[in-house]
Amino acid sequence: MHIDLLLSLIEVAATIAFALSGLIEATRKRMDIIGVLSVTFVSAFGGGTLRDVLLDRRPLFWVQHQEYVWLVLAMTLVAPLLLRAARHEIGDKLMEFADALGLGLFTISGASIALSAGMPPVIAILMGSLTAVFGGVSRDVLCNEIPKVFHDHRPYTMCTFIGCGIFLGLRELQLAPQLSTILGIVSITGLRLLALAQHWHIPPWPPEKR
Amino acid sequence: MHIDLLLSLIEVAATIAFALSGLIEATRKRMDIIGVLSVTFVSAFGGGTLRDVLLDRRPLFWVQHQEYVWLVLAMTLVAPLLLRAARHEIGDKLMEFADALGLGLFTISGASIALSAGMPPVIAILMGSLTAVFGGVSRDVLCNEIPKVFHDHRPYTMCTFIGCGIFLGLRELQLAPQLSTILGIVSITGLRLLALAQHWHIPPWPPEKR
Amino acid sequence: MHIDLLLSLIEVAATIAFALSGLIEATRKRMDIIGVLSVTFVSAFGGGTLRDVLLDRRPLFWVQHQEYVWLVLAMTLVAPLLLRAARHEIGDKLMEFADALGLGLFTISGASIALSAGMPPVIAILMGSLTAVFGGVSRDVLCNEIPKVFHDHRPYTMCTFIGCGIFLGLRELQLAPQLSTILGIVSITGLRLLALAQHWHIPPWPPEKR
User: Fold this and answer.
1) From chain B, which residues contact A within 8 Å (Cβ)?
2) Does ipTM exceed 0.90?
3) pLDDT in tens, chain B (210 residues)
4) Cβ contacts (< 8 Å) between A205 and chain C: which residues?
5) What is the pTM of this model?
6) What is the DSSP letter of C32?
7) Using an 8 Å Cβ cutoff, are C107 and C132 in contact?
């Protein structure tokens, strides 16, 4: 399979996952349909838009792929009704999983695009993380909550750094691009889900004096 | 009248309207003159700047039209003294009207610019709305208030979608550009003022179960 | 000394100063190491990034100068341990000084870059101020505080306007670029420190009726 097609599939799946996390949070805040659409839109496209602006890529990916805009619009109209039919307990787990999937997918997609634009490894890692994290940060800001990623002491951005490092290392080892892409995504999503399941915490920095 | 001249006139009037809405809110917060200038500046230029960055247009419109910067500076120096002389009750109605006018003007101006840049209709609607709404969102964020547009359940962005749809529809019908522009603006500003006068509300999405 | 080399040195020093102010604030909030890194990064690079995006300069200065990214990473790892060893009373004064230094350095560096890009004086002043102020604004927003610069009624942005005016005036008078650059920085940093030492306040605008 050609690597560009793989990247496109990654982008679609990541868009759905992040849109869903925004949609769930917005409906919980009892926003109107435009508010839900706005938060869903920003959650899905915020990180990728910032990446495209910083790398000076035009057209923006949601301009080039108008179908994403229609997808988000359709999700806004249909998904809240489907979610309401589901049990409420499912909500939290579903949102955590969608978020972890989006984290892995957006990070590796962002890092790959940065590499294609000729960026060195350290910038590719930053662009990957930023692509994944900025959508969620914008979502929380629009919902008037402190961005979770900065204050919950749970591994989140840390997972993107580690998984992105694995992805770049595998590329250096001349692994097939598809395989290193898949392994990068799996390591980030897996790390995040493992961290949540095991209740891992990152201590404050610097650590307390003894 | 040439359509470019019309668009320039729209931009001047929209800049004044949005600057005024920012200026009124900043003086209510008892900011210093630099704070008032900053909020006025961001209210007037925030939406258009985001539009220009997303469409990769340079120079930015306030760089190309330096006179707008001087206009906002002059307004910051003079308008608070004039407003203080006026009755306080006028303030609320004046701000609502200025805001509704800016909403219509910026939406159609933003959508027109997006069309000129070769964007398809759905992107033009998004760019138009974003041009109109992002200035106000930034204004509220700088004044440490939740953006009204996301939580007051009043039609605001909804008006830009409908009016922008009318504008694009009239263009499809080969109406003279000036006429479709004017009708687009009037429909947005009119819808917004009507919604305020009639106390229309948009319910939460999804609607409550019965 | 060539003016480009001087500007590079200015940029390094300003980056350290602003990074330090972000790092101190983030460690006070007891963030984890990723949170400290993020806030330090945004404090150091936020203003310059916005300037580069608005002027459409690529690569961004922290992409072109990867060593800055490593510098900020190294500071995040080492500086909190060094700061903890120092007395706590030093913190406030050190942060005020670092912030004032960064204010002067970033303003003149931003204005110089804007002039090199062919911007007129009024836009150069805005770009200079924005380069200096936006990093701090982003830092405060990420730390969930109202940006100090908008509500503390202390001269801050005002210093950048005055010092940038002095810088542009001296250039008009054909002073050597190095000298006008140094004098511009010194006037902004000096004004800011003087304002803090003398407890100067800017009254609300418009002033209260008598």
Assistant:
1) 53-56, 119-120, 122-123, 126, 146-147, 149-151, 153, 156-158, 161, 202-206, 209
2) no
3) 566 776 677 677 778 888 988 888 888 888 888 888 988 999 999 999 999 999 999 999 899 889 999 999 999 999 888 877 765 656 677 778 877 888 998 999 899 999 999 999 999 999 999 999 998 888 877 776 767 787 788 999 999 999 999 999 999 999 998 899 999 999 999 999 999 999 999 988 888 765
4) 27, 31-33, 35-36, 76, 80
5) 0.90
6) B
7) yes
